[in-house]
Amino acid sequence: MPGMTRPADTPLLLRTAGLTKDYATRVLDSVDLEILEGEVHALVGENGAGKSTLARILAGLIRPDAGHIELAGEPYAPSGKRQAEAQGVRMVMQELNVIGRLTVAESIFFGHLPHRWGAIDYPGLHRAARPLMDQVGLSDVAPDRPLETLGVGRQQMVEIAAALSRQCRLLILDEPTAALTAPEIERLFDQIRRLGQQGVSFLYISHRMEEIQRISDRISVLRDGRLLTTRGAAGFGLDEVVRLMVGRPLEETRLAASRPPNGPALRVDGLAAPPALRHASFELRFGEILGLAGLMGAGRTEMLRAIFGADRRAAGRICLRGSSAPARIDHPRDAVRQGIALLTEDRKAQGLLLPLSVLANVTLNHLRPFCRAGGRIQAAAERRAVEQWLDQLGVRCRSPLQPVAELSGGNQQKVLMARWLHRNCDILLLDEPTRGIDVGARFEIHRLLRQGADQGRAILMASSDLRELLGVCDRIGVMSAGRWVATFDRNTCSQDDLLHAALSGYTRTHP
Amino acid sequence: MNDTASHAHGRIAAGRRWLADYLGLGLALALLVLVFSLSTRHFFSLTTFQTIANQIPSAILIATGMTYVLLIAGIDLSVGSVLGLCTAVVGVGLAQGHWPAPLAILAGLAAGLAAGAFNGLVSIRWNLPPFIVTLGMLEIARGGAHFLTRSQTQYVGSALAPIVETHLLGLSLPFLLALAVVLGSQWILTRTVFGRYLVAIGTNEEAVRLSGIDPRPIKIAVYLYSGLLVALAAVIDTARFESANPNAGSGFELQAIAAVVIGGTSLMGGRGSVVSSFFGVLIIAVLNTGLAAVGARDETKRLVTGLVIVAAVIVDQYRHRWSQTKP
Predict the structure, then answer these.
(1) Packing angle between helix B130-149 and helix B79-95, nearest 10 degrees?
(2) Contact, B86 vs B111, CB < 8 A?
(3) Which residue in A has a C-alpha nearest to residue B187's C-alpha?
(4) What are phi and psi of A104, to 5 degrees?
């Protein structure tokens, strides 16, 4: 399907005209989007480009300030989520709506459970759930199985089955693969293709370009609230998509160290915290970025948390700054006092104080410089210091007093980096520092990391994106099945080497 | 955005928040006074306001401690019973032990601190929800009060009279003390490191822990503070009634939570103000006194108070949204 025009033989499912939404600024600017029946329509753009706003309008969660929508030729103006779902438009959320201890069948029909005199008709429920579950490849799962016992990937399938339980015409997927493993992604794609053949349309929002190219029929690019173009995915090159998204060509993202690393920063010997972390030994030096690769569940997060004192260790020694005596780290407080920082994987749940200001988030763990008698905080000095950090890291916000929740993912991550730099930490443990962050901001964060290393800091960075690791890190360690299995120099290894090492723990048996 | 503009924006935002916080509460209070003044000739008088000022110091102290507790996303259900326990300690000390007044007062304060320490330490050591621990303390302290007094009211005569009889500028010592505690606690909350930690812990305790701050001592300090303020309230009430009733303080926990919630402090933690809670106490007190002045019966008073609590929380939601909207 090349070019801007749509093929004449495919009927139009949904059309928006002049869709506009304002918050503080214009978030959507007269967007005219067309979604065809049975197509997978990818929506790409940097964070803050308006993708989520557009999706939420279609799903009935918010209303546009101007413009209108047609669904299968009829005017479509849902008053809420329920009405949108009744008309066949449904959104599977980034954070899954997994409710407590519901069973699979209950979650599929939640909101319209079959009942008789108020009592749920379980046999009927399970009968009705079966074909839907078969449809999304959950034939081997019992309908009364508790949802929480399924992996995230299959929970997502349940969400999709829930969407199908209501005669779905348009399914909106927002970063559906963020928490999935490779085989789960394949399964998801199979289902998307199958449902597409049955005439269900998909609006597919993601940052992951390769996946988008594989799964989508057409791609729409949003930038600063405007729809730049909609083109057939075939022949729409990745570089071209990224260039449109960012509005400028991306520089070569391979960042080299400007000087060799200094002395040892962190030495870990035989660290273990079963079951997730079995054995890790490695050394990190000041002035270098050490990458940490591994599949999901390889124990990377657990290892970083164990070093930081966030979780209990079963065995192992941690030595700091070349000392041969093991450091005492029983609580994150001990780690931070010794200059170690942890940028957590889930910045919203474990890092940010979302409703509080940017300022309070930056200075949280280091208010001492502004402290006067009686613990009084000198507001002016605090604000000056924070403004300096925001400036230095290029954080875009209206004011230091703006709630951090209103910032984009990339800027939120920079706020957390500012917190640790302000705290004078020089051994930085970063867990997926660019997850869910758009291409432009990702590059800026990479640059900041390289700059931090060049200034002499030691950085250990876990990432699931091998190309990112190869582009940014000096050396790359690999974990597999809870063990640190290999360490590579980036100049002498390939993605294949890393992947092989990452898989090794699952094929070999360890003593 | 240039610097001046962002400063101006910050100031406008702060002013807007301040208005949202206090203007509504002040108006509500003024409206109540107005309505009762128009309804009955007996309400708007110096005597009425003196009566209210004499009644509320203990409620203000308890509500202040409760504000801190709710700010860290905790709750303290034991405040009423702990007040009973502390007043029992003071009363028994004075009436049975013939202790000097300062010693009895110190013993009462120690009892409050001990109860606070129990609440804080137990909930943290065994990672129990404060709802459960303080519910246990509610029974323990009430049992203790009855045990100490053998369920007899202890008459202390005028041993503590100087506390309530000292006046400055027409205001009683307890009222001035309560006012000072409110202002001091508000200052701590908004201007100090400790206050910043309270809000941070109530907002996201795990994030605070992972930033390298140990939230535990801070949380214990909050329960200690709540216990201490309850004990102060107990001393004041013992002095005011010249007696220690082992049933003193029954139901105060709910009154305190009501006052704090009317003031707009969130039960989820992370958002609240001591001054707002002070307004909350005033609103409940004016409501009670006013309804009594128009001749309402007890059941009517409770009914109206209940409706006001629910209405206040609804209004607060809108108010919060208004202060959050971007200009």
Answers:
(1) 20
(2) yes
(3) A376
(4) -60, -50
For B3, the closest chain A residue by CA position comes to A399
Classified as helix, coil or strand, A322 is coil
- Name which of A191, A212, A162, A188 is nearest A51 in CA terms: A212
Closest residue in A to B197 (Cα) is A364
CA distances from A468 to A250, A429, A481 (A): 14, 16, 22
Q: How far apart are CA A205 and CA A48, in angstroms?
A: 13
Q: How does pLDDT run across A331-360, given as a tens digit for each residue?
A: 999 999 999 999 998 888 889 998 899 999
Residue type (1 letter), A1: M
Does residue B4 belong to any structural domain of this protein?
no
B227 band by pLDDT with thresholds 50, 70 and 90 = very high
Q: Tell me whether residue B7 is in a domain.
A: no
Instruction: Examine the pLDDT at A319 and tell me if it is beyond 50.
Output: yes
CA A322 to chain centre: 35
Which chain A residue has the Cα nearest residue B269?
A: A355
In angstroms, the CA B81 to CA B183 distance is 26
Dump pLDDT digits (tens) for B33-83. 898 888 888 788 888 888 888 889 999 999 999 999 999 999 999 999 999
Q: Is A350 on the interface with B (CB under 8 A)?
A: yes
Q: What is the spatial distance between Cα B235 and Cα B29, in angstroms, rounded to a whole number?
A: 28
Interchain contact A378–B (C-beta under 8 A):
no
Residue found by looking up tokens 């958002």 in the block = B271
- Percentage, residues of chain A above pLDDT 70: 90
Q: pLDDT band at A3, cuts 50/70/90?
A: very low
Q: Is the pLDDT of residue A295 over 90?
A: no
Given a cut of 90, is residue A501 above it in pLDDT?
no
- Which helix (H) or strand (E) is A195 found in, with range? helix A182-197
Find the CATH number of the domain harbouring B124: 1.10.3470
Residues 6+ away with beta carbon under 8 Å from B244:
B87, B88, B90, B91, B92, B95, B149, B153, B154, B156, B238
Domain with B111 in it:
40-325
- Taking the C-alpha atoms of residue B18 and residue B21, their distance in angstroms, rounded to an integer, is 5
User: How far does B48 lie from chain A, in Å, by closest CA?
Assistant: 39
Give A103's pLDDT tier (boundaries 50, 70, 90).
confident
Of B194, B204, B324, the CB nearest to A375: B194
Asked if residue B31 belongs to a domain, the reply is no
Of B192, B200, B206, the CB nearest to A377: B192
**What residues pair up with A201 in beta bridges, in sequence order?**
A170
List of chain A residues whose C-beta atoms are within 8 Å of the C-beta of residue B13: 399, 401
Interatomic CA distance for residues A136 and A164, integer angstroms? 9
Of A360, A374, A399, the CB nearest to B196: A360
CA distance B221 to chain A (A): 15
Nearest to A399 among B10, B193, B271 (CB): B10
Residue B118 placed within a domain: yes
Which residue shows structure tokens 């809000």?
B199
Chain A residues inside the 8 Å CB shell of B206: 349-350
* A110: pLDDT strictly greater than 80: no
B281-317 pLDDT, tens digit each = 999 999 988 988 888 888 888 898 889 888 888 887 7
CB within 8 Å of chain B, chain A residues 391-450: 398-401, 403, 419, 423
- Looking at the structure of chain B, the number of domains it has is 1
Q: Which residue of A has its CA nearest to B4?
A: A399
Taking the CA of residue A98 and the nearest CA in chain B, the distance in Å comes to 21
* Those residues with Cβ within 8 angstroms of residue A252's Cβ, 6 or more apart along the chain or in another chain: none
Tokens of A387: 């403004």
Whether residue A275 is preceded by a cis peptide bond, meaning omega within 30 degrees of 0, is yes
Residues contacting A290, CB < 8 A, separation 6+: A282, A284, A458, A459, A460, A461, A473, A474, A475, A476, A477
Instruction: Give dist(CA A342, CA A344) in Å, integer.
Output: 6
